[in-house]
Every structure is written in structure tokens, then in C-alpha cells.
Request: fold
Amino acid sequence: MAFSSISLILLLLHIGFFTFLSFQKSAAQNATLHPSEVKALNSIFQKWDLEAVPLWNISGEPCSGSAINGTEFESEANNPAIKCDCSFDSNTTCHINQLRVHALNKKGVILEEFKAFTYLMVLKLDKNYFTGPLPSFIGNLSQLIILSVSHNALSGTIPKELGNLKELLMLSIGSNNFSGSLPPEIGNLVKLQQLYIDSSGVSGEIPSTFAKLQDMVTMFATDVAITGKIPEFIGNWTKLQSLRFQGNSLEGPIPSSFFNLTSLTTLRISDLSNVSSSLDFIKEMKNLTDLVLRNSLISGSIPPYIGEFQSLKTLDLSFNNLTGEIPDALFNLSSLTSLFLGSNRLSGPFPAKKSDQLQTIDLSYNELSGRFPSWLKSGLQLNLVANNLTFDSTNRSVFDGLECLQRNFPCNRNPPPYVSLS
Reply:
């Protein structure tokens, strides 16, 4: 089984707790949480109206129970949760290194008491109703590897001090009410592997300093008002596996440097403006399972080598300027289940054969012509509106009403009659 660096580090943290479980049980009677952190934790719990779960606080000492044993940190029953490292001062002092308050509908601001947790490696406060800014002092928690504050109502600008978190592997700030641009200092996080800014409220261009983020594996930037051209340097993020630019104000073309992104499994780019692109850049992306280039000014033809994308499950090239015929190989991909090619200028006949897996097909608003192939039958999820298909006695009853929705049907040849009621 392959692990990402983040998964592996969390696994090692968990194994560390489990490996020393017998030691921690005996040492827990002597090891206690540092007084400054006890005070901070108690204050946070009081102000946020939190209660320790039974798995955790079994002795009155915060670093007890699930905080030091092998209990899964992300367990649903272990929320809110902390994990402690009790190896300090000859195994007599504990420090909190993981803290999680997940989806508990808590309100308030991110409190200054968090300054006390200088050993914190994982901070997850996602899916609550926290408001106010993301405090600049977060940048002083220099051991953080995971920071997730997504799905809250945080506001203000993203603090440039986040650029001090040189160990950070994951930053998740999506689904908030932030404003302003992404601070260039985030480009200093050269170990960063996952960045989630979708629906965050930030705007402006992607900073050029992000060129240094060459360990990036996942970047989600949907529904956020980033502008300018898609940076050429993203093509140098050769470890990238998932990239989403949808619902932005980005301009084309899609950089030719994307040709290098052969590790991608998910690529979603939509709603580009200005300059068109061809599909040449996808030629070596044979690991793709999900390719969405909807409304992205894609021109030219669908290349025949699309038949080599044997892992592809979803393909959406709708609302572009594609021309030419649909390659037969596309309909025979063994993994493809959903195909969206609507609102292009594709022409010619249907492919003669179709794999059994392909069940959802949208070919509407093209210029396809000819007779129906034998595989085209009811039971599929089909949209064939506004083409030039040929109907006869063998298919007219199967697709009742579709004939009058074709481009070449008589009622579509002239402007419709109307009545003026003025």
C-alpha cells in the first residue's frame, strides 16, 4: 500500500503512540501536561463550550486516555480530541501536538490561548461556525504540518505569517469568507503537498512565488475569484495528482508545460476566457481517471490516442469548440462510465461500438449525423438533442419525440411564428 507523506507522518504519529502504549500507561501517572497548556486548554474549552469525551479525560489529567493511548485521532467518538507527547523532562512533562475540534457547530473566534501550543503539529478546526480573522500568531506554531480551518465563517485577509510554517504539508482554508489575495509568503512553504482554497473568498493572481511549491500533490481552487493566466510553472509540479480550477476568472490557454504532469489522476479546469487551447497537453496523462475541461475554449479534434487512457472514468469536454469525428476508441474505453461532449461542433457518425461500462452520454448540440448504431437503445442516460440524426421506423418509437428536436427537422428550419399582443 502506498502512502502520501502526510498519511505516512500521521501513521507514524499513531504508531508512536501505540508502540509506547505500555510505557505511557505507566508513565502517565507521573507525566503531566505543561501548566501553561493546561491553562490554555481549559480556557478554550470554557469559551467554546466544549466537553472532553469519555475516551479522553479519564483521570482529570488532559494527557490521559485517548490523548496518549492508541485511540484513533480522527475517530468519530474521539471529538474534540488532543494527542500528547510525554517524552519531555525525563518523561515527566507532556505537550499537546495534535488538536481537533471537528464539525461540532462551535462558535467564536480562534483564541489567543492557542499561542501556548508551541509543540502543535496538527490543528484541525474545520466544519464549525468560527468567525473573525485567521490570527497572525498561527505563524508562530512552527512545528505545524497540518492546518485545517475550512468550512467556517472566518474573514479578513490571509496572514502572511503563514509563510513561517516551513514544515507545513497541508493547508486547508476553503469555504470561508476571506478577502484579499493569497500572500506571496505561502510560496516559502516548500514542503507543502496539499492546498485547499476552494470557496475561500480570496482573489487576485496566483503569486509567482508558488513556483517553489514543487512538492505539491493536490490543489483545489474551485469557486474562488483568482484571476490572470494559469501559471506556466504549475507544469513543473511533476508530483501533482489532483488539480481543480473551476468557477474562477482565469484566462487561457492551458499552459503547454502541463504536458509534464504525468502523475495527474484528476484534472478539472473550467470557465476559461481569452485564448483557446488544444488537447495536445494531455497526451502523456495516462493515469487520469477524471478529466473535466468544460467551457475552457478547447479547439481542434479529440485525439485518437484518447483510447490509451485506460483508467479514465469521467470525461467532460462540453461547451468547447471541438470539431471532427468522435474517435471509435473513446467509446471502447473499459473504465469510462460518463461522457459529456455537448455543445461542440463534432460531426460524422456515431462510433460503431460502445463498452458496456459507458452508460451516461451527452452528445447534444453538435452536428452528428447518420443512422443510429445498434448499441444506441433505451436504458442509457442519453442526450442527443440538436444533431442531424436520421430517424426511421427502427428507432422513431424508441426515442419518441427526439426527431423533432434535431437540427434538420422542418420545424427548426425557419424562425418560429409568433403573435404580437402589444
The longest strand covers residues 81-88. The CA atoms of residues 145 and 168 lie 4 Å apart. The radius of gyration is 27 Å. The helical segments are 5-19, 21-27, 35-47.
